[in-house]
Amino acid sequence: ECRANLTPISEKVTEQLDIQPARVQVLRHVRKTYACKACDGKPVTARMPNQPIPRSLASPGTLAHVAVAKYVDGLPLYRQETKLARIGVHLPRSTLAHWMVKAGELVQPLVNLLRDRLLAYDIVAMDETRLQVLKEPGKRAQSQSYLWVQRGGPPDHPILLYDYDPSRSQKVPIRLLDGFKGYLLTDGYEAYGRVCAESGLIALGCWAHVRRKFDEAIKAQGLLGPEKRKASLAGVAMAKIRELYRIERETKALSAEERQRIRQERALPLLEDIRRWLDEHLPIVPPRSALGKAMNYAHKQWPKLIVYIEDGRLRIDNNLTENAIRPFVIGRKNFLFCDTVAGANASANLYSLLETAKANGIEPYAYLRSVFTELPQATSVDEIEALLPAPNDGEDSARVS
What we know:
This protein is of the alpha/beta class. It has helices at 60-71, 77-86, 93-106, 108-120, 171-176, 190-199, 207-221, 226-231, 233-250, 256-281, 290-305, 319-335, 341-359, 364-374, 381-385, 394-400; strands spanning 33-34, 44-45, 123-131, 133-135, 145-152, 159-165, 183-185, 202-204, 338-340. The chain has 16 helices and nine strands. The model is unreliable at 394-401 (pLDDT under 50).
């Protein structure tokens, strides 16, 4: 007001998030050709570095970008084709599909090593979901095939493997579990039980499926009001199961040994109580009712449902494996089907690598770009093993940061 110069006494900083479109660049590999002026020897051209897809426009970064967009973000190739065209990159989806098939074939050595490590650990969880493949020999385009998921490995280094197969028969888990010994955690699909019996595996049941069936029984009864639902037989069962899960939540951060001890002290009496409750009410509940089906499911699965208290490393349910299926299910809603068997196998390999990386806290794009850059140059098993997705700490985190 007095017209004198103002003196700054403080400052206010306001931040905004600014996102710019993807930057596309052309990488030029300039290789000189040499000749000897002293003789008529054959000219020699400098060697081209090994590429993930020889004689292709796709750089490691481009392949990683397309793969992460499809298999992590659920963006089908026809949408990526349109998105790339908006920034001046015209790539037909047939080219993108070919790249994904070749990328899936490239990472096969890494998937093989992951499988060896998964089967070496004594706990594996499995599940499966449908997948349609249009050009499959001996099958109609409308028929269903399956994507099988395995989750295992040490708790601090989880491994997720995806495998395509046209069948849902027990031959598939027998093949995928060849050489495995230990606990197999699954839902109530009968094929898994037969695999355990034939291969000498210890079958481990899923309490989440039991809980889900009793929840369906409550909904089928159409009971109004929380008090009536709690008082129903299905509501009583749900309350008992909730107590089992309460123990799991409270012991989540404990060591496996301590968790097993608490399960023996607190969960075992609850399981015995649920067993008595089933024996009491099974004979009087109509077996074809929703409640009868839930009770009979728990009754038939009972030997598998109580195994988890034997070892603190074992889980009460198969939810982690079902969660591992979810990224594929989301992607399936967008791309609907695979065109060829080669595409289905490649997708399974890339899902295996990316979901294992995510489970170990590794950023998917940075990791996959590193793999596509270094794997073509690898000449030994040690060099390939160094590219496996490891927990995001120490040297491994620096490699993919």
